[in-house]
Design brief:
membrane; MFS; about 400 residues; MFS_trans_sf; 15 helices; MFS transporter; mainly alpha; transmembrane; single chain; about 85% helix
Amino acid sequence: MEATAPLARSRHLLVSALGITQILAWGSSYYLPAVLAAPIARDTGWSLASVVAGLSCGLLLAGLVSPVTGRLIQLHGGRPVLAASSLLLAAAHLLLATATAYPLYLIAWLLMGLGMSSGLYDAGFATLGRLYGQGARGAITNLTLFGGFASTVCWPLSALLVEHGGWRVACLAYAAIHLAVCLPLHLWVIPPPPPVAPAPVKDRSKEASATGGARARFVLLASIQTLAAMIASMLSVHLLTLLQLRGVGLAAAVGLGALVGPSQVGARVAELLIGRNRHHPIWTMLTSVSLLAAGIWLLLASQTFVALALILYGAGNGIHTIARGALPLVLFDPQQYAALMGKLATPSLIIQAAAPSIGALLLGMGGGNLVLTTLALAATVNVGLCVCLISAVRR
């Protein structure tokens, strides 16, 4: 069915609907093991590492198929792809709820990976970019504000469901939510995309030069996003352990870790208020990687300013999400934005799958200082890469 009603074409309604589905998609996939992993391990007898490995398998597959997702959104718009994500996530939860053998559990997470590829930020950004072109920056920023509340909404919901019905009931509930809430929103609210305008005829020599410059910008941007994804994934899993290794008690570590979420949302609000169409998004990217580097170096260097370090890190991580959605709109052909987002997502999702295991290996080799030193160096390299990207943009 076509979303032809004026209401379905309202940008505010579209962003709000996508925001709701982003909260539910993130909360029931990427953030799911934070609450369900321990109950699943206790109930099945599988090791906690084996249970969490399901998410890594899902992220790995999501990265591998993301270019296909981007091309599909480029060709057909976001409605069929995001609707398919609701069906895939529902099927994954149904299989999780009934899985009694570990291979079935992993298959469920592979289905979840397909749903994450077609239903999380990159697919949402690609949908908005396909609809609004270079005018999508504000909509992308607004969408990240919704997504920032995924763990805030879904962690308590998951815990409530587990407490009253067990983890299998929680999975069944999420399957029902995807079918009853997310699927109708995707089908009803997302309008069909505008037709792609024919490409103008270009001078061959200029086109070759432009292609070489675009390739360099793509490699730099993909590298920046991949390093940022590695940092965020490793810290999201190991932050509490790292804080405790630096002498912070568990309760205090949890309280300090809770600063990251509000810092992310606060930085996104600030970007929304001061940044919309007022500066090039390359400066948002530079600010994000600089804040990430400052926060991690401060966390490594001082046990006194841990709270400030985590606020800086959270702010940088928050606006990085905006930058990675908005920057490709101005660096590359906006009519190829959806396909490009799929390609950019591949290395980021693959490193997200591997980063927790890499962090665990580093912890075993050299403790928390080795992990933080590695992350601080990676964040510093990212600042350098961003400076190179600025230079490439100016040429």
